[in-house]
Each structure stands twice: as C-alpha cells, then as structure tokens.
Amino acid sequence: MIELYSIGISEETIKNMLEVNPEIKDLSEKEIKEKVLILEKFGCFNDQIINIISSNPTFLSRTKGEILNLVKTLVDYKFRTLNILLDSNPYILNLDPFEIKNYIEKRVEQGELLEDVIDDLDSNPILFNEM
Amino acid sequence: MKELLISLGYSEEDYELFKNNYALSNYKEETLKEKIIKNYEFLVSVGYTKEEVIKITKSLPPIYSYSIEKIKQKIEDIIALGYTKEEVIKMTKSLPQIYGYSKENMKQKIEDMIALGYTEEEVIKMTKSFTSIYSLSKKNIKQKIEDMIALGYTKEEVIKMTKSLPTIYGLSIENMKQKIDFYDSIGLHELLVVDAKQLMQSTVLSYARYMFYKDKGITIDMNNYRKLFINNKSFEKAYGITKEELLKKYDYNKYIEKKEFGGLK
C-alpha cells in the first residue's frame, strides 16, 4: 500500500479504505500502480486520482479488463473529459457496461434523444448512481 | 466447472476468481456445480437479470455456498427493516455484501444512525440511495461528521447535507476538503448545506466555470450559484465555449499553485 501513501492519501483515509474494501491489503504495489496509471491515461491528475481512489476503494479490486471495458463504453457513448466525470462521481467505476447501456437505452426508448441523455449524465454524474 | 461458468456468462478470468475462493473451495466439484446452477436460477427468479447475477456473484462468490432458504431469508429480513423487494434487489446490486450482513448488524447500523440524529425513515431513504452506508463502521461515520465540523459546519448542517446527499459518507476527507476549500474561497460555504447534491461536480469544472464568469464580469454568489452547475449543452449554447476549451483555458492545477501564494486573484 506504499503506492497509496506515495500519491498523497492519508493514513486515516487508508484505514477507512480498508474498512470498505479489505481486499486492498492483499493487492500488490504493481496492481495498485496499474490502477493509478489507468486513471492518468484518462487525463486524471494527482488530486483527481486521490479523490477517486480514496472515495471509491472498491475500484482497486476491479480488473484492468473490467475498467477498460467500462471506459470503452463511456467513450463509445461520446462521454468526453473522463477525468471530470470520474472525479465528479468516482462510483461510476463500479458499474459494468450493461448497466450504462440499459439505463441509456431505457431513456431513449422513453423518447429522449441519445445526445440529451448523454449530456444529462455528463452534466449530472450523480445520475449514474441510479443505474 | 469452467465450462459451466462460461455457459452461464462468466469469463475465463471469472473462473479463476471462483476457483480460488475460500468459501467455495470446500465443496466437491459436482456439488458446487449443482449449487451454482440452483442459486443462479434462483437469483434470476427473484428478479435479477443474468448479467446482474454475474456481477453480484463476482463481487460475493460465497453467495454460491448459501442455501436457497438462506438467500430467501436474507431478502425477507431486509424487507422487514423497511424496504420493498424491488429496493432490496437494487440495494444488493449496489452492495452485494449485504447478503453477508446479519439482520442484527443492519438493525444496529440503523440504530447507530438514529443516535447520530437521523429519523428511521431518513436512514431507510439514505441507505436506498447510498447502500454502502451499511459497510461503514460507526467510528467511520462519526469521524466523517467530526471532519466536516472541523471544516466549518455545525453538526446539524452535516446531518442536513448528508440527508440530501448520503454519498458524502463515502467521499474521502481529501475529496471533501478539496471541494469545501474551493467553495469557501469563492464565498459559497453555505452551498453544501443548501444544495449538497452540487458536490457531485468536479471542483476542476466548478473552478473553470467560476473563472469564466469572473472574466465576463459575472459575480457568483449564493443567489446565482446554479450558474456553476448548468448542463454542458446549455453552457456551450449560451456562451459558445465547449467544456474542453473551458478546462484548457482555466487550468485548475495552476490555480492550486497560485493558491499556495495566497488565494484567487
């Protein structure tokens, strides 16, 4: 967990993170670093990485494949500025592609334009919590 | 076993997860396969889609070691706390670990929250919206309240904002401090009390919009703070600048560096 300290997460917060996701203690530095690098790849800078990881420690247990599939879904739906989206609502990273697709398709079926649904989600990331 | 899991919709990677799970390792392969099929079909019959069953069981593999009666009882126990069946389905999708919590533990959590200042109805409502409250210890929740008090809010204000946005209990203090420091610096300390949901916007974007309005001679205060949070499309239409252009022009990182030398100019 040295990686968590090195990016600037406090000891107290790491304790809280372990409470929410005890699996963190079994993760290697490489596995944690991998998640940090993924977030950097999406344009997240250090403060955002701290926000995301410390607020959603469950994210650290997801596989790289799961995260990349999720992000691909977001990109396919033309969400831009992923660093802003994930910093706004770190819990988006716990979703699976099918949950996002089902939510969006349901709203489109109800008559909304796809671009309006995407704009609504992008502008109000808390809506992802309804999925 | 691998073939069974793949036929149910799991990946090869998922098979490793189940293969290495301690709770499932005590079963003979044939017995485990039977349990997986039975429990999988039962969870679908309860109201989960197949994809949701896969997601829940990956998050909580030991659920395949539970008897059907145990799962049924768990659902009934949670309903008895004050939720509908549909709400239980939604909550367990969000936090599958609930299936591992005892009825007594969950009741105690509700009591703990009532002791902090919420009504039972408020706790039920908050946990529907942010089920992860059930995974947080009393100490953790109390600490969050104290941290928020240290950042300048009264206990009553913290209770009020967490009723409106229970997710606050999940956000780290680093995250909360970043937001509160920013909104304090622009005179919007009351924002979190009055409209906590706006916390779910990245400070990076709030800063960029604030500076944009400042350059336009528009002062943001508690009367017009909603300007910081309008939809991207509306903002772009009104002002002719995309979110990407805005973020590039008003760089939050540079603001942070400037802050170290004494506030916004």
Number of helices of chain B: 17
Low-confidence stretches of chain A: none
Overall geometry of chain A comes to elongated
The total count of strands of chain B amounts to 0
Instruction: Characterize the main sheet of chain A.
Output: none
The CATH homology group name of chain A: Transcription termination factor 3, mitochondrial
Strand content of chain B: under 5%
Which radius of gyration of chain B do the C-alpha atoms yield? Answer: 23 Å
Question: Number of domains in the coordinates of chain A?
Answer: 1
| Coarse structural class of chain B | mainly alpha
The coarse overall form of chain B would be elongated
Helices and strands of chain A, in N-to-C order? HHHHHHHH
Radius of gyration of chain A (CA) equals 15 Å
The first-to-last residue Cα distance of chain A is 31 Å
Work out the helicity level of chain B: 55-70%
Instruction: Please bin the fraction of helical residues of chain A.
Output: 55-70%
* Largest inter-chain contact set: A-B, 41 and 38 residues
Into which percentage range does the β-strand content of chain A fall? under 5%
User: How would you classify the helix and strand content of chain A by structural class?
Assistant: mainly alpha
Tally of separate helices of chain A: 8
Q: How are helices and strands ordered from N to C of chain B?
A: HHHHHHHHHHHHHHHHH
What is the topological layout?
The complex is a heterodimer of chains A (131) and B (265).
Chain A: H1 2-7, H2 11-20, H3 29-41, H4 46-55, H5 64-76, H6 82-88, H7 97-109, H8 114-123
Helix pairs in contact in A: 4-6
Chain B: H1 2-8, H2 12-19, H3 22-25, H4 29-46, H5 50-59, H6 68-82, H7 85-94, H8 103-116, H9 120-129, H10 138-150, H11 155-164, H12 173-185, H13 191-194, H14 203-215, H15 232-239, H16 243-249, H17 252-259
Helix pairs in contact in B: 6-7, 14-16
